[in-house]
Amino acid sequence: MALFSQTSLHGFQALLWKCRMLSPISGCPQLFAVSFSIPSREKFNCFSFMTSSSAALPVGPKGAGVVPSKKRSEIDYEEKAWDKKAKEVSEGKPHSSSSVTAPKKELLTHALLKHQFTSVQPPEKPLQAEEWNRLREGFQSPEVFEEVMLNSMVKHNSPIDVAKSLLTYVAKSYGDIEYKLLVKYLVLCVQQRQASEILDVHDIMKGRFKILESGAYSLIIRGLSNSDQWRMALTILEEVKKITIPSRTHYESCIKAASRHQEMNLAFELYHEMLANNLVPTLDVLQAFFDFSRGMKGAELQKELFGVLLYLRDNQLYPHKTFMQSIKLWFESIPEGNWRGHLTNIKESGQCPVCNHQLEDSSLTEEEYNNLREKIIRDVIHGTDTFRKTSPQEFEAFQKFVENRLPFDIVIDGLNVSHINAKKMQCENLFNAVNYLAKKNTRLLVLGRKHMLINSSNWKRKIMEEMQTKAHFFFAENISEDDAFLLYATLRSGKHCKFVTRDFLRDHKACLSDSPTRHLFRKWQRGCQIAFSPSAEGKHIHFLPALRYDCVVQTTGDTWHIPYKDFFEEKYSYQVPRKWLCIQQK
Amino acid sequence: MQSANMLLKKIVRSSVLPFAAQHGVKKDLFPLSRTLNLSLCMKQDNSCSPSEKLDLDAWKKVMKSGLQEVNETVSECKEPATLAAARETLEMWRLAGKSVPENITEEQLKTFIECTSKSAQKKYLRYLHLKELHKKNDKRKMEEKRERRLEAQEQASETGVTKKNSFICLWANSMDKVCNWRAAQSMVFGQPLVFDMSFEKDMSLREVTNTVRQIVLSESTNRRSTDPFHIHFCNFKDNSLYHKEFIKHYRGAWDKLLITVTDQCYTEVFPKEKLIYLTADSPKVMKTFDHNKIYIVGSMVDRNIKTGVSLARAKRLGLETAALPLEKYLLWNTGAKNLTLDQMMHILLTLKDTGDWKKALEFVPKRKYCGFVNKPVHELKKTLSLINTLKLGKRQEEVREQFAKNYSKKQT
């Protein structure tokens, strides 16, 4: 199979164009079925295969690309949407999709329901049975007519009576209504907050089926909790409990409903039940607590809400901006509380500029330290097989090496640092970094691999030798992981020791078995990692000092400091927010 | 509870009227439409009369009247409560249109209950569902085939032509014999190929079944080749999962297979210096196929790629390792560089017979590469970037970076 290459994009497109026009081209062994858009015909993008599997489709003698049938049928639908101009082109295209296997068909029907029939317009008024029948007859695939119709009703938010008339038609003609349709009808009712209808459908379902599945339950609960009948949602939650553990969305709706009606005790009861079931509450739920208990009195309630804040602390969660605002407003609304909140940035030293309070230190306790070291040796270095990252002999040699030269102040990931400036030799980069860090009379350890010792264009022996007078070096095998050694050496040296690497150490964090240890690891990493970046002109390296203070929700009793994110979206686990909410009691 | 429901219903019923009234008011907000299609509106007004209103809730009556009939179909309660409950849940999911198999055995139900998370349950059910669909299709196709064959036979009997042939039709049988002779020969003189069966604890049950299926495929490929390997299964424990799966596949033929199965390690069977462990993580790249060496293939499927597991085995035993020169010969596009065991088998057999890398690497899945490297790298770069600019959803930089990584000057 030869690679077909065409120097200019234009020629390539022209060729594709020809192939599409089904003129057989000899000497064209390959056709890349890749999507493209031809400027003159913007509509023409039928080749939009998203998969790479069709990167090269052989062109048969007939000249038609052998398109996977599933895709072809998708194209067929698109074709219907084309305008007439493009239609001329597709004339010669085979329209058979008979070779589609059933699983694909199955998947296809879903796809159909999703995007092909979205253009179906639901009627605006309730129809009589014969009118529905006529519509159904005129529909492309009558067997999914009702489903499609209800789907589009949900989409267009049709009046509920229209859906009722459809259900009546179905019930009259078949004597029964499928569960699927009832659920879709429920969606419509929830959308329009028809509490009474929801209850009716629930009764019917209960009578008709022994149990319901979680999808229907969550719809019913959500629908009811948004209405005046929210207490019914609680009874239904009890029903769910008989069958399975309710999901967090079930709890969420109920908790929100209870908070909305100022039943804080009930809401917190549900919240604790949820935590006991190992469900993770969404930030929405937590925010609801603060929103709805604004201005309410009660020591018990305060304790609970402080508990929520401590939950954020324990799980290293950061509220987003609106949530932070809710917290601030709640604090300020406590009667006779005299709390004041300010938004601020914390100084490098870890001091809050508003209340001059020194934030918690980022260093770990002795116990945590030892615990983390044990876990790292067990999970990260050894893991399932010591040979995966190193070998027992090598690790032992390294341990001996470290014990004999303790303590280090800074441990450097040599290879990582050496790549900082691509224009320079790798050993030069490393040399600059070592020089810069060694100025301050610190004990350095540089970790590398054995290939650094071989004289090559990137690793000049002379420079390497000069470096070795300024720092201790340890060279691991070329197929060993040097990061694991970096962690070990740093942890072994004690609290003051920092390490230098641009790596986020995500893969090592993932090796750790349980989430408390992971949180510990991140905390330690924040406090010990010196990141660096090349300066603008690339002459030297900027080192960013490690964080001195710990970035979690924290309190001293009369002050609270809460870090928050600007947006709701998930940030990376190694990044910490820079903005803080400082709350103090006058 | 019941009485409360009744009360609620009454309230609901009474709230229908104001709702209808509102509806009427809304209609009056659009006098334009009324004038436009007056005749329709007249009908519409009729349909909004209270008698029609009741008609809208007719489906509820139908559903409630159908209750008695439905409740008669009570499932047989032979199973313990948990299983029955699970069965019911599945039935409801199926009705809700999720991917759930229609029929499920007790064993599968137990597996389903033992799933640790909801997503695991979903995946397992989807897998069963697809399996069921495939089975149905196969059945359907078989029946169609049979009908076609019968028709053809009828037509043939009508024409009444019988061909004369000097061979009796025993093809499959005689082919088997030939293959077995060759395999027997390889047992004595053939080059050994080792499958390392020590990865069981690194795999889930599903991965083990996949592994065994791949090995069965490779074994049959090997048997049909002109010059088969002498296959060894080393570190093979009796009554292990592997063993059970093999029995499932081969049934009675397991004991008649012309391969060597041993619980010994390959280092005990062969001299160490002759062994080469094939693994994608190896830093060394295979240049030529050596007929005097013994290659080891780790029989492992890692759906979530476990880097360095087989390399660790080789390191532990101090064996030489090698990786296929995929980067050297193929313009790699996407996907992991670990290949399935049957692909490995095809490649090794082709290398053994011809020594032609290009021919051998035809067996690498086409989706994973864009073509063979037969030009200077910079030209390939152009083509690749062209392909990727044309392709949607591929970010330029990403591709370039990958290319740079693959084809940078190899550092010694």
TrEMBL record, chain A:
It is found in: Mitochondrion. Its cofactor is Mg(2+). Pfam families: PPR (PF01535), PRORP (PF16953). Its EC number is 3.1.26.5. Signal peptide: none annotated. CDD domains: PIN_PRORP. GO terms for cellular component: mitochondrial ribonuclease P complex. Keywords: Hydrolase, Magnesium, Metal-binding, Mitochondrion, Nuclease, Transit peptide, tRNA processing, Zinc. This is Mitochondrial ribonuclease P catalytic subunit. The gene is LOC101869105.
From TrEMBL, chain B:
One of its GO terms (cellular component) is nucleoplasm. It is found in: Mitochondrion. Keywords: Coiled coil, Methyltransferase, Mitochondrion, S-adenosyl-L-methionine, Transferase, Transit peptide, tRNA processing. Its EC number is 2.1.1.218, 2.1.1.221. One of its GO terms (molecular function) is tRNA (adenine(9)-N1)-methyltransferase activity. Signal peptide: none annotated. InterPro entries: MT_TRM10-typ, MT_TRM10-typ_sf, Trm10_C_MTase_dom, tRNA_m1G_MeTrfase_euk. PANTHER family: TRNA (GUANINE-9-) METHYLTRANSFERASE, TRNA METHYLTRANSFERASE 10 HOMOLOG C. This is tRNA methyltransferase 10 homolog C. It comes from Melopsittacus undulatus. The gene is LOC101875451.
